[in-house]
């Protein structure tokens, strides 16, 4: 059986701890395994931290909130 590698890209505003990312990655991996029916080692999760100056919501930079 060919296994397609799910690649999940998660962007977060900076400030999350390593432990929070670890827990989120584990939850994403488990959900992907359960729903997409692939082995856990096929699931790849990439975290990208965005600086608060690089994210705007409602016309206001996150750093200005």
UniProtKB/TrEMBL annotation:
Record SUPFAM superfamilies: Tautomerase/MIF
InterPro entries linked to this entry: 4-OT-like_dom, Tautomerase/MIF_sf
Domain 4-oxalocrotonate tautomerase-like as annotated: residue spans: 6-59
Keywords: Isomerase
PANTHER family linked to this entry: 2-HYDROXYMUCONATE TAUTOMERASE (PTHR35530:SF1), TAUTOMERASE-RELATED (PTHR35530)
Family named by the database record: Belongs to the 4-oxalocrotonate tautomerase family.
Protein name: 4-oxalocrotonate tautomerase family enzyme
Gene this chain is encoded by: dmpI
